[in-house]
Specification:
By secondary structure, this protein is α+β, with helices and mostly antiparallel strands. Helix content is about 40%, strand content about 35%.
């Protein structure tokens, strides 16, 4: 009988370890379940960090950053490729609201010369995102940097590609620059 109790206890312990291990494989931020790893072509990226973007009192989206290896600062992030910034929407936004917010973040975190150098790419991004009409609650926008281009996706569907390292660096600074859209979000994305 004692042997049976020990076997049941050992089996129960094994099941609990398995359950807690499975839970550790997925992060939940702002009510959104995020994968710990994503594949981009043949490359596997790991979740570097994630947080909730708020505006006034409204939760707007969960932002997450995926990299080949973890990084704790902007230079470390920009040195890694491929990389993904993912936005899981927590509310519906018009395409204009999304584009305006990104343009504001670009202006806050890049010099006039840096913005002038990527103006055509910023215009291209606006055209791609305006084609969305709106992004709804639970939609997922991905900004993937692969082979020198930023690939924009909506709910797993490719929507457009914009060439240039300088453009992607300028865009990444919206969240990770000196004046990010939200300071605590920057810290979360960098794994703090």
């Amino acid at each position: 009988m004692k042997r049976m109790v020990k076997m049941v206890a050992a089996a129960s312990f094994g099941i609990l370890v398995g359950v807690f291990s499975a839970v550790a494989l997925a992060a939940e931020v702002g009510g959104v379940k995020l994968d710990d790893k994503v594949s981009m072509g043949a490359q596997e990226l790991v979740l570097n960090g994630a947080g909730v973007r708020t505006r006034v009192v409204f939760k707007v989206y969960v932002a997450s950053l995926y990299l080949p290896q973890k990084a704790t600062d902007l230079a470390g992030v920009l040195s890694k490729s491929p990389r993904r910034i993912q936005l899981n929407l927590l509310r519906t936004l018009s395409a204009d609201q999304l584009v305006d917010a990104l343009n504001e973040g670009l202006a806050e975190n890049n010099t006039a010369a840096e913005l002038a150098a990527v103006k055509s790419q910023v215009d291209q991004m606006a055209t791609i995102m305006k084609s969305f009409k709106e992004v709804k609650e639970k939609d997922v926008v991905t900004l993937d940097f692969v082979e020198g281009a930023t690939r924009i996706g909506l709910n797993g569907e490719a929507k457009g590609s914009i060439d240039g390292d300088a453009f992607n660096q300028a865009l990444t600074k919206v969240w990770l620059g000196d004046k990010p859209v939200q300071a605590d979000l920057k810290k979360s994305l960098l794994g703090a």
